[in-house]
Design goal:
It catalyses: Couples ATP hydrolysis with the unwinding of duplex DNA by translocating in the 3'-5' direction; ATP + H2O = ADP + phosphate + H(+). Its EC number is 5.6.2.4. Belongs to the helicase family. UvrD subfamily. Pfam families: HRDC, UvrD-helicase, UvrD_C. It is an enzyme of class 5 (isomerase). With 652 residues, this protein is an alpha/beta fold. It has four domains: 166 residues, 3-Layer(aba) Sandwich (Rossmann fold); 72 residues; 178 residues, P-loop containing nucleotide triphosphate hydrolases (Rossmann fold, 3-Layer(aba) Sandwich), CATH 3.40.50.300; 86 residues, no CATH class. 47% of the residues lie in helices and 11% in strands. The protein has a six-stranded parallel beta sheet with strand order 3-2-6-7-1-8. Strands 11-16-15-12-14-13 form a six-stranded parallel beta sheet, sandwiched between helices. The chain has a two-stranded parallel ribbon with strand order 4-5. β6, α11 and β7 form a beta-alpha-beta unit. α9 packs across α10 and α14 packs antiparallel against α21. The termini are far apart. The C terminus is likely disordered. The structure holds adenosine-5'-triphosphate (ATP) and magnesium ion. The site of adenosine-5'-triphosphate has 19 residues, from α2.
């Protein structure tokens, strides 16, 4: 017989306490990287191994399909393969399929994969816009309401209390919401939230069903409990009934879905609700180097409000690593190119590409990285968002731009022509406040910036040339691969870890996002930075650019960087000071830069060596000097800034 895994080995005393606690309420409150997910998988496997639970009676839930899949893999490896690990929705779907025919005497209604069509119908009936982004915003607000257990009639009052900014006036939203529900019922369809609402209602109203359910499932486990919303909590309560066999783990400092109705109040209030609960706090961080941990502690230490239960300080357990690095760039393209060079350098030193991630706040930020990585022939994958050229608004814009290009006689002032053409697909001068409309605007403005970039390199370019350039880029960008660098939003990165993490675009308006206009919203943005920083095992790099790609508008670096950048770092200078410095060419020339990647140098050792800690030491100096001279010359000819990187194709 195969030897059973020793499930208490490789755990610290507190983790062991949580793993071996008797069945009943258990709560692990702990910061990122302290082994919460590891603790719950070991706990399940330990109880199974000791014969204290039957695998099929355990239900472990989490919030993303990927996290659930990872948990199943870990459980199998620990000898607890029969345990169900699912998202709330998948679990509810499975249960509903089983119980629906019994309760309703019909087959289960159809699950819709998205609600846009019916929301658009409901909006249309009221004479409201059915533009894709408007419908997306309405659908998002319906999701918030349903997740918060708020019906159409209660919406206006509840939305005011929660400080929501509905996409249309509240009374009108009530009518869209009610109209959508009516259309959906008539079509005998269910949306994702209905799965949860229906299973909760069945278990609450049908004692026989509840009894049968509770004979099947006896033990519940929830990962990332800080992000549970009222609807999911209601389902969890319906699953539990009067029992208390529930293990939860979470980190209130990682609550990043409160905009969508989630709240850490159940995590923080767990011990009050179950006074006999075993409550365990973990402080040792096994994921990250002490240098990364120190930065993460500082990010969250600066939070305005730290309710009880969130005041956890992480203590790094790993050997020392490099200091987190900071870099400021003139514009986004320069930032993306410099980071691509750093990625190449890391890969050259043996860090696998799948162990490197670039994390950003909004999906539109991925385009410059997709391009820079493609140019450098570095494979990547985009997680939790569509690749830039696959986004509906970009595809739509390309059709319009191709049309405009065909009619163009190649006269002049290109960015303007692109801007004009894109007005047809809804580009406005000022960015919309937030939501889906803002994301769409960001994508469209990225297309204008590509035009600005092209004109900088090829002043005589017109729309035709531009359309050809776009088509080429859409073609040449790599298809996603599993083994590549991960490009992901901060939201999609939760729970994951990489050896090297680049947090990019850390400017005001992006992090915190422009529409974070309340203290609470800004604090959620700060938690996003904390989530991002704590994904790194060893290398952490924070960067920002003072203008959009090719753009001239000056942007300020994120307020969250205040107090993080070390005093001896060139980027530590206050922005105003730096502007003055830049106005004086001599002062600017003294900023020490890495002779390989040209990022600002930090620390005396780096300055002495003349290169940053991420660049390799064995670069062919001679080639480098020649390349720089050549680039400078070529840049002068093409009238582009000297930092523009030429690919092999341009070199020949
Ligand atoms: P997050 O809050 O980001 O979800 P977490 O608390 O769930 O983090 P895990 O993902 O479980 O943390 O663990 C972080 C890393 O530390 C993993 O690589 C895990 O294998 C490792 N780890 C956890 N506990 C220990 C331990 N006792 N000894 C060694 N490594 C550990
Ligand atoms: Mg985890």
């Amino acid at each position: 017989m195969a030897e059973q895994p020793r499930l208490l080995e490789g755990l610290d005393p507190e983790q062991r306490q949580a793993v071996a606690a008797p069945r009943g309420p258990v709560c692990v409150l702990a910061g990122a990287g302290t082994g919460k997910t590891r603790t719950i998988t070991h706990r399940i496997a330990y109880l199974v191994q000791r014969g204290l639970v039957v695998p099929r009676q355990v239900l472990a839930v989490t919030f993303t399909a990927r996290a659930a899949g990872e948990m199943r893999t870990r459980l199998r490896a620990l000898g607890a393969g029969g345990v169900q690990a699912q998202t709330f929705h998948a679990a509810a779907f499975r249960q509903l399929r089983y119980f629906w025919p019994r309760v309703h005497d019909t087959g289960m209604w159809q699950l819709m994969d998205n609600k846009f069509r019916l929301v658009a119908n409901a909006a249309n009936k009221l004479g409201l816009s059915t533009e894709r982004e408007d419908v997306r915003d309405l659908a998002g607000e319906i999701e918030w309401a349903k997740s918060s257990l708020i019906g159409p009639e209660q919406y206006p009052e509840a939305a005011a209390r929660a400080g929501r900014e509905p996409p249309v006036v509240p009374a009108q939203f009530t009518r869209v919401f009610a109209g959508y529900e009516a259309l959906k019922n008539r079509a005998q369809s269910l949306d994702f939230d209905d799965l949860l609402l229906h299973i909760a209602a069945i278990l609450e109203d049908q004692p026989e069903v509840a009894e049968e359910f509770r004979a099947q499932y006896r033990s519940f486990v929830v990962d990332e409990y800080q992000d549970v919303n009222p609807l999911q909590q209601r389902v969890l309560d319906a699953w539990l009934g009067p029992r208390d066999d529930l293990t939860v783990v979470g980190d209130a400092n990682q609550t990043i879905y409160s905009f969508a109705g989630a709240s850490p109040r159940w995590l923080i209030g767990f011990a009050r609700r179950f006074p006999e609960a075993a409550v365990v706090r973990l402080e040792r961080d096994y994921r990250s180097t002490p240098q990364v941990v120190e930065l993460a502690n500082r990010v969250i230490g600066a939070a305005r409000e730290r309710p009880a239960g969130t005041r956890l300080k992480l203590v790094g357990q790993r050997p020392d690593g490099p200091r987190p690095d900071f870099a400021e760039y003139d514009d986004e393209a320069e930032e993306a190119e410099a980071i691509t060079r750093k990625i190449a350098a890391l890969a050259g030193r043996g860090v696998p590409l799948s162990e490197i991630a670039v994390l950003f706040r909004v999906n539109a930020q991925s385009e410059v990285y997709e391009q820079a990585l493609s140019d450098a022939e570095i494979p990547y994958q985009v997680r939790g968002g569509e690749r830039f050229f696959a986004r509906p608004e970009v595809r739509q814009a390309m059709v319009v731009l191709r049309g405009a290009a065909a009619a163009d006689d190649e006269v002049d002032d290109l960015p303007g022509a692109v801007r004009d053409a894109l007005r047809e697909v809804g580009l406005t001068d000022e960015p919309p406040a937030g939501g889906a409309a803002r994301e769409r605007w960001e994508s469209l403005i990225a297309l204008v910036e590509l035009a600005e970039e092209l004109v900088a390199a090829v002043p005589e370019a017109g729309l035709r040339r531009y359309a050809a350039e776009l088509a080429g880029r859409a073609e040449s960008q790599h298809p996603p691969t599993v083994e590549g660098v991960t490009l992901a939003s901060l939201h999609a990165a939760k729970g994951l870890e990489w050896d090297a993490v680049f947090l990019v675009g850390l400017v005001e308006g992006t992090l915190p996002i422009q529409h974070a206009d309340t203290d609470a919203a800004v604090e959620e943005e700060r938690r996003l930075l904390y989530v991002g920083a704590t994904r790194a095992r060893e290398h952490l790099h924070l960067s920002w650019a003072l203008a959009r790609a090719g753009g001239r508008r000056f942007r300020r670096r994120s307020r969250f960087l205040h107090g993080l950048v070390p005093d001896d770092h060139p980027a530590a200078l206050p922005v105003r000071g730096r502007q003055q410095q830049e106005a004086q060419p001599r002062a600017k020339a003294t900023t020490p830069r890495c002779r390989i990647c040209e990022s600002a140098l930090s620390g005396t050792l780096e300055i002495k060596l003349g290169r940053c800690s991420t660049c390799p030491s064995d670069v062919d100096e001679d080639l480098l000097v020649r390349l720089k001279a050549w680039r400078g010359e070529r840049a002068r000819q093409l009238k582009v800034p000297a930092y523009v990187v030429f690919t092999d194709a341009t070199l020949t």
